[in-house]
Structures are given as C-alpha cells and as structure tokens.
Write a structure and sequence with these properties.
By secondary structure, the protein is an all-alpha fold. It has a domain of 168 residues. α13 runs antiparallel to α14.
Length: 274
C-alpha cells in the first residue's frame, strides 16, 4: 500500500494513476449513473451488480481503495502467469495496473470460466461484448456449461434488481445510449466494434473446433467495446491457457468442466490385424 501511494499520480494531473478505479469508487450505489458518458475520462457504465460487489471496498478512503484495487490486479497477474512469470507479467500489464481498469479481472474470469462457467457473469455484467467468448460452449455443444454461465448471470441480476430496480433500469438506458458510440474512433486503437466483432466470432469458432482455448481471451479482447492499450493485458490469459496449463498453472483435465467433448471428433474404428 505504501508503494502504491508513494507512486500515485494525483487525480487532477494530466495522466493520473487509478483513473479507471476512480470511476468505480465515485458512484453511489443508489444512483450509479450521473456520470455515464462513456467517452468522458470519469464515467461509470457497468452494471449495478458490480458496484454492489465492491460495496465494502468503496467504503474505504480513496487512497486505501486504490491500494486495495491495485493489490487485486497484481494478484490477478499472479493467477494468470504464475510465480516465475509474475514480474514480466506485471511489466506487460503495467498500463492496465496503473489505470485500474477491469481487463485483468476479465482475463481471470475467462480462464476460470472453463472450469467454473459461472465466472462468465463478471464479463457479461461489466464490459458485456467480450461475452462473445461464450460461443466456445455453443460451438462445442457444451450446453450445460453455457447454461451455468447464463443462469449464474441471471441469478445475480435477479438479486441485484430486487435491491436496486431503478439502477438497473438506468443501466439499460446507459447501454442503449452507449451502443451508438461503439465506433471507438476516440479510443487508443480506433477500430470500430462492428469491424472487430465478426473477427472475434470467427476466432472463437475456429478455436472451439480446433481445441485452442487461448483463442477465447484473444477474441474477448478483440470484442472489447473500445480498444485501449490496457486491454492488451487480457493476452496474459493466453499464458494460463497455453497447452499444459489451465489457470493458475493447473494441469488440464481430459475434458472441460462439463465433462463433454466436441461433437465433431470422429470415432476411428480400431485396426484389425490378421
């Protein structure tokens, strides 16, 4: 925490640290969207459920919140690349860690989602469009995993809606208004979503058919609503999903979380010898 505060750039500077984290700390739980203009430096455009999940952290002073949030992002890097690659991983994700966005947590959710599909709820209730990665389950006919992902999301929405129904109605309005700004020409990488999204779909479909899990976080990154340099940190998930590894350095199982295998793999009859 001392290191984070010592290196912190004040929020009124031209390039402050924790710019995105500030967007999560400022909004009130009861009224999250007074600052929801997506193209502005300080704007909250995620679901009310995300703020509710951060309720304990949001009770902290700003400096303590930033320190805790930074620690979470550092641990996310550790989960994705392991102990040996932790330092290079931090260097690779430095812009993301300094900014405090959720891209690293998206990467963690995607990696974890292969064994715990409910983790995809985080993706759908924050950035939304990287949820294109769920096509992995659909293409492989892993309907149970797809159902778990969507069911967990629906359950979270139902509970959160019961607490703050007005905030959810406001979020739907934010999504509709933001949809007209997905051209993303104001972002660091000015490629509009409507061009990137088909590429992401093709990438996931190819990965599902060829059993390449690393394509899912890459496709999710391509499908971000807007591409910023920090979003590239999602590629660390490809390290976790490299052959021989599944999240946190675990060895892969013979099948995915749902125990299913691709329906298109042919069964080859044994060769009979005389």
């Amino acid at each position: 925490m001392v290191t984070v505060l010592a290196l912190r750039v004040p929020s009124d500077a031209a390039w402050p640290t924790g710019q995105e984290a500030l967007c999560y700390w400022l909004p009130a739980l009861a009224d999250p969207y007074p600052r929801s203009e997506w193209t502005q430096p300080v704007a909250y455009v995620y679901s009310p459920a995300f703020l509710q999940a951060l309720a304990v952290l949001k009770a902290l002073p700003w400096e303590a919140f930033l320190a805790a949030w930074t620690a979470i992002l550092l641990l996310a890097v550790r989960y994705l690349v392991g102990a040996r690659l932790w330092a290079p991983g931090i260097a690779f994700a430095a812009l993301e860690i300094l900014g405090g966005n959720v891209h690293l947590l998206l990467a963690v959710a995607i990696v974890a989602g292969f064994r715990r599909p409910a983790a995809w709820a985080f993706v759908l209730l924050t950035k939304v469009t990287p949820g294109v990665g769920l096509l992995w389950f659909a293409m492989r006919r892993e309907w149970r995993n797809l159902g778990l992902a969507l069911g967990a999301t629906a359950a979270i929405v139902a509970v959160s809606w019961a607490v703050t129904p007005g905030a959810w109605a406001a979020w739907l309005d934010v999504l509709i208004s933001s949809a007209t700004k997905t051209a993303g020409l104001w972002a660091a990488v000015p490629v509009p979503l409507w061009l990137r999204l088909p590429v992401a779909v093709v990438l996931v479909a190819w990965g599902a058919r060829t059993d390449r899990r690393w394509t899912v976080p890459v496709a999710a990154m391509v499908a971000l609503p807007a591409l910023w340099f920090g979003g590239v940190s999602m590629l660390l998930a490809a390290v976790a999903l490299a052959p021989g590894r599944v999240g946190g350095g675990e060895r892969p199982r013979a099948a995915d979380a749902g125990g299913s295998r691709p329906a298109w793999r042919p069964r080859v009859a044994p060769i009979r010898t005389a």
